[in-house]
Write a structure and sequence with these properties.
There is one protein chain. The chain has one domain: Orthogonal Bundle (Cytochrome Bc1 Complex, Chain D, domain 2), CATH 1.10.760. 58% of the residues lie in helices and 12% in strands. Helix 5 packs across helix 6. The longest helix is centred in the first third of the chain and has 39 residues.
């Protein structure tokens, strides 16, 4: 009977343990992603993701960024140009794509999508690969 109780207890704890593991993986990804952001993105989007109004769109609390994960992945890989509306403000600029690995793309997006008031599930390298 004690074995059954132990097994049931472990089964009940599994989602909690997996959640802690996923949180640790996201935090580790974000640490790597911050370095990628500083090396590639900070010049335009600024240290706190605020961008420059009318010139470079914000990533902080960005409705545009948070609304479409696939588009976000494509824009890191392929760049972006043409009109876009971010938080009610029009932008019409150009962003070059970046030659990053699947893991680097997921890391930088995990950092951006979980900083400055943004909150998102982790993006995995496998998701990036499927979009690539």
């Amino acid at each position: 009977m004690k074995q059954i109780q132990t097994i049931l207890c472990l089964l009940a704890l599994t989602p909690i343990l997996l959640s802690f593991q996923q949180d640790d993986e996201l935090k580790t990804s974000m640490v790597r992603g911050k370095e990628i952001f500083i090396a590639n993105c900070v010049t335009c989007h600024m240290q706190n993701g605020e961008g420059i109004e009318g010139v470079y769109p914000p990533l902080a609390k960005s409705d545009y960024l948070m609304s479409d994960k696939v588009r976000a992945i494509k824009q890191v890989l392929e760049g972006a140009s043409g009109p876009m509306t971010v938080n009610g403000i029009q932008y019409n600029g150009f962003m070059a794509g970046f030659d990053l690995s699947d893991r680097e793309v997921s890391d930088v997006l995990n950092y951006i999508k979980n900083s400055w008031g943004n909150k998102s599930e982790a993006i995995t390298p496998e998701e990036v690969k499927s979009v690539r």
